[in-house]
Design goal:
Helices cover 91% and strands 0% of the residues. The chain has 183 residues and is mainly alpha-helical. The longest helix has 134 residues.
Length: 183
């Protein structure tokens, strides 16, 4: 290990020979070093750098063309959508106008049907009232007739005796026989 350390120590003590060494004059060495480094970089890196720049340029141009195509497609779709919107708006207006007229027609029809229904209900009401009046009149007639008949029977029963009763029956039988012979 001592040999390795000695060799590094020896490197530090090299005397500067005339051919290779460190020049500590900053003003003299930096422009030359920079020009050499830049020259090497330009000479060897020119192809690589131009390829990179060309690739980047091609990608940018391709992205621009794609963007233009997408923009044109979007403009075309926007125009189609606007045309569809105009068509839908016109159709909506037509439906609105037709809807309003149809609503008015339905309203008139509904009012007419309601008037017809009311007339029918009024007629039915009048017929029902007339029928109930006739029924009430018939019931009153029947009661009056029954009461009159019961009164007459009561009067006849109180006034008639057996002999008068038999003569009345005989007279009535005679009248029925006379009517029978006429027929």
């Amino acid at each position: 290990m001592k040999n390795i350390t000695d060799s590094f120590v020896c490197l530090g003590y090299w005397p500067s020979a005339g051919s290779f060494g460190f020049n500590t004059d900053i003003l003299a060495t930096n422009p030359i070093n920079l020009s050499v480094v830049l020259g090497v970089l330009i000479f060897f890196g020119k192809g690589v750098l131009s390829d990179l720049l060309d690739n980047r340029k091609q990608r940018i141009l391709k992205a621009i063309r794609n963007s233009e195509e997408l923009r044109e497609g979007a403009i075309e779709q926007l125009e189609k959508a606007r045309a569809r919107l105009r068509k839908v708006e016109m159709e909506a207006d037509r439906f609105r106008v037709n809807g309003y007229s149809e609503i008015e027609r339905d309203k008139v029809n509904l009012i007419n049907s309601l008037y017809t229904t009311l007339e029918q209900l009024e007629n039915n009401k009048n017929e029902t009232i007339h029928f109930e009046q006739q029924r009430a009149i018939n019931q009153v007639r029947q009661r009056v007739f029954q009461q009159a008949l019961q009164g007459a029977l009561g009067t006849l029963n109180s006034c008639l005796n057996n002999e008068l009763h038999l003569r009345t029956i005989s007279a009535n039988i005679g009248m029925f026989e006379a009517m029978k012979e006429i027929k």
